[in-house]
Amino acid sequence: MDKDDQLFVNHLRDLADLCYQRGIPVYTDFLNLHEQTVFLAKMPEFSHVRIRLDGGYEEAERKIVCFLPVYEEEADRERLPIVPLKISSSAGKFTVPCTHRDYLGAVLNLGIERGKIGDFLVGDGYAYVLCTKNMADFLMNSLTSVKRNPVICRIVPFSELTGQVSYRELTGSLASLRMDSLLALFMKSSRTAAVSCLDGERVFVNGRLCVSHGAVPREGDIISVRGAGKFVFDGVLSSTKKGRLMVKIRIYG
């Protein structure tokens, strides 16, 4: 564990102790996948409080850690300090298409720290963004354009996020069910390139770092490759007479 990770763990301990001593819910900012991996490795240290990891919707990648008093019932999502905002273009038919990077760049250019912002769900002429509660008013008042589009921001209910995640399906055959083979299929690359991602600590399975070339994915696993995207492993469909496995994945976006 490097110095930055140790400082991060010390911060988590301080938050958990504050929750325990004062009997109040305490929350982190949005954590990236590496931070979540560090936290999950240290979870046994936080047995004196209750823990919830949430990003505002089921498939969220960036999540906050909620430290809750042991006697308190688990908080509903609506009670968490996460606010869903919808960023909508007001340019009508003149709307210029925008990507995830365009929306993220526009928000960060306002001077907001990355940890205050969760995932973006991008649609046609709009995007949903999850943010910490103390950033919602600032975003609604300050974000006026994305790319060349004038935009309006408003708070929406969490239920509006349901069904906003889009996928495209991909099937392919593998010689064996190994992580490096599955990544090569997803990235449409060689196993050597997939191994490089694993060795470079760029692969996360359900938020946990994965470096094992031969790790066996389980059906339903959400696998993220930093810089390449993420996908859901939907399992083995069939096997051929030569022993190859036909698998299906669903790629986000």
Automatic annotation (TrEMBL):
It comes from the Bacteria. GO terms for molecular function: RNA binding. Keywords: RNA-binding. Gene3D superfamilies: 3.30.1370.160, 3.30.70.330. Pfam families: YlmH_RBD. Residues 93-158 form the Ribosome-associated protein quality control protein P2 RNA-binding domain. InterPro entries: Nucleotide-bd_a/b_plait_sf, RqcP2_RBD. This is YlmH/Sll1252 family protein. It comes from Fusibacillus kribbianus. The lineage of its organism: Bacteria, Bacillati, Bacillota, Clostridia, Lachnospirales.
